[in-house]
């Protein structure tokens, strides 16, 4: 179900993020399994017994990462993402970092509404290379938001 929700919700990226970064499925099952093996702990939100939102949290030692925040397309704008984000950030006792696509303005607005701030371009590059395993192209086309405490 996590895989299904991620790939349903990621349809919002089609035509928004760079074409060379978008593919179908957005997250293959093997990639999801690697994320779980790498320590991403997924939490879900259920409504009437159906999983409709997922969000991951990953401990990286001196920071906590929020990873893969997705809500089913049919269930967006109902506060589900906010509930998941609050639940996970309350569990973190250190700086929380979130990486997302620079072109995903709706995601950036969501994180701003929930108290996160964009880091500088220089800090972004340092953080993405230090805490994420992503391509240089993804570093170029992404942003990082922080819970307010400097991570660098």
UniProtKB/TrEMBL annotation:
Residue intervals passing through the bilayer: none
Gene3D superfamilies (UniProt xref): 3.40.630.30
Pfam families registered for this protein in UniProt: Acetyltransf_10
Domain N-acetyltransferase: 1-133
Molecular functions per Gene Ontology: N-acetyltransferase activity
Record-linked InterPro entries: Acyl_CoA_acyltransferase (IPR016181), GNAT_dom (IPR000182), NAT_camello-type (IPR050769)
UniProt superkingdom: Bacteria
Keywords, comma-separated and alphabetical: Transferase
PROSITE patterns: GNAT
PANTHER family hit by this protein: GNAT FAMILY N-ACETYLTRANSFERASE, LD18367P
Protein name: GNAT family N-acetyltransferase
Organism of provenance: Paenibacillus sambharensis
């Amino acid at each position: 179900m996590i895989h299904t929700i991620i790939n349903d919700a990621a349809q919002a990226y089609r035509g928004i993020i760079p074409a060379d970064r978008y593919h179908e499925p957005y997250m293959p099952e093997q990639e999801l399994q690697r994320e779980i093996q790498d320590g991403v702990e997924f939490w879900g939100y259920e409504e009437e017994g159906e999983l409709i939102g997922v969000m991951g949290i990953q401990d990286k030692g001196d920071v906590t990462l929020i990873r893969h925040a997705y809500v089913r397309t049919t269930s967006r704008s109902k506060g589900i993402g906010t509930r998941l984000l609050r639940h996970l950030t309350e569990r973190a006792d250190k700086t929380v970092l979130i990486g997302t696509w620079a072109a995903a303005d709706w995601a950036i607005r969501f994180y701003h509404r929930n108290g996160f701030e964009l880091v500088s371009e220089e800090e972004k590059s340092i953080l993405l290379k230090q805490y994420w395993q992503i391509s240089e192209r993804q570093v170029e086309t992404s942003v990082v938001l922080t819970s307010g405490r400097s991570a660098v």
